[in-house]
Amino acid sequence: MSNVSTLNVLLYDEVIGTLTDVGSDRSLFAFTESYIEDQYRPVLSLGFKDALGELMTEFRPYQKKLMPFFSNLLPEEAMRKYLAERAGVNPEREFFLLWVLGQDLPGAVSIRPADGEALPPHVNKPLESENSGRERALRFSLAGVQLKFSAIKQATGGLTVPVDGAGGSWIVKLPWSAHEGVPENEFSMMELARQIGMDVPENKLIGVDEIENVPEGIGQYGKTAFAIKRFDRRDDGSPVHIEDFAQIFKQYPQDKYKKASMRNIAEVIGIEGQESDIAEFIRRVVFNALIGNADMHLKNWSLIYNDPRIASIAPAYDLVSTVPYLADETMALKMSKSKRFDQFGSDELRHLAAKARLPEKLVLDVAYETVKRFHDVWRSEKKNLALASGVITAIEKHLKNIPIVKEAA
Fold first, then answer.
1. pLDDT-derived band of residue 60, with 50, 70 and 90 as boundaries?
2. Distance, CA of 365 to CA of 408 (rounded, Å)
3. Long-range contact pairs involving 22-29 (C-beta distance under 8 Å, separation at least 24)
């Protein structure tokens, strides 16, 4: 019996391509002829454009892993292992993991079996967990390593995780075992960013006991979770397409810290976006330096397609001050010349502007304004935020070492 299987790739609920497992865990992606010939086609990813801006149509096969665009739709580490165990799929067999999780993916992409068939029997192999395959499979995927679920907001303000995990318009991030107070930290940093003037989705802290239908097998590490409204879903539930910069740069999730820089991101935003997108990018770069966020990797920057053919910078997410937890004075990605927080100043920003072909005056004006706004809001609000005193102390100690702070004074 042939083990060849085909998945339809849908964008805005229209089939635009296929992923085919041709045996031995080798997969091949192809666009449909109708998508290739459509001069008004919606963008799937900037990573599918060649150097001249034309659509790429020929792709090599991939072994075990899917090609980077699709691999980046899947969760990482603990979240991947958990969802794979629920489905009885080896987490390394990405084609079949996407088969299970593809009903509800980031952005406007969805995956469906071409012939509607169930997961083939030869895929379900015993895993190490004794619970493998015994529970109902969850049909959603959210990128990242942290345990998180798509949820529906109740009239009472609480959240409910759908039975199959798919279809919610909120993301609820459960307390993290690695560090205490992460939900409070993220909520506070997002609130600071909002008050400074950045584009931040609606979000809130919520008691874990206010979240209904949390799937079994999730450890409880705290009483408070962080919830954020999905910016890739409209109020009526319809999808808005997004892609992160690991997808754009065709890098696998494990290379999200290695293969590109902030300057590379700036170059794309400068080409694809408007002046307002450049300003928002610089605002976020400066803000993350000020709060000491050493974890702004490629997957924490995204583009959004409010118009299916035009990219702009997506709203901010995953803003966390990491300096209270990690003794790391380097950024996740090189800025332009350096990764060091203590070298983040106007000289670094001028270099970034020149190399990324951004207007230097705009870059510096936005940077200085962001520093001033940050200090105004921080002074008045730091004690009103849901932050432990140790987090405040760590941020204030960190601020003394950032050159842009003195230069903007």
1. very high
2. 9
3. 22/61, 24/63, 25/63, 25/64, 25/93, 25/95, 26/61, 26/62, 26/63, 27/61, 27/62, 27/66, 27/67, 27/94, 27/95, 28/59, 28/61, 28/62, 29/59, 29/66, 29/67, 29/70
Under a CB-based contact definition with an 8 Å cutoff, are residues 151 and 170 in contact? yes
pTM: 0.92
The topology (CATH level 3) of 241-407 is 1.10.1070
pLDDT above 60 for 229: yes
The strand ranges marked E within 59-147 are 62-63, 109-113
238 close to 253: Cβ distance less than 8 angstroms: no
> How far apart (Å, rounded) are the C-alpha atoms in residues 152 and 121?
32
Q: Which residues pair with 228 in a beta bridge?
A: 171, 203
318 labelled catalytic = no
Residue with tokens 């350096």: 338
Euclidean distance between the first and final Cα of the chain, in Å? 72
| 142 vs 146: CA distance, rounded Å | 9
User: Which of these is catalytic: 21, 232, 244, 295?
Assistant: 295
In angstroms, the CA 157 to CA 150 distance is 15
* Domain regions of the chain by residue span: 5-123, 148-229, 241-407
Cα 273 from Cα 281, distance rounded (Å): 10
Residue 129 half-sphere exposure, CB side, CA atoms within 13 Å?
18
Amino acid at 312: S
Cite the DSSP H helix spans in 292-345.
Answer: none
Share above pLDDT 70 across residues of the chain, in percent, rounded to a whole number: 92
Q: Nearest Cα to 311, choosing from 354, 346, 268, 350?
A: 268
Residue 54 DSSP label: P
Bridging pattern class, strands 159-160 and 148-153 = antiparallel
How many H helices and E strands in the chain?
Answer: 12, 14
- Which range, of 156-165, 179-188, 374-383, 394-403, averages the lowest pLDDT? 156-165
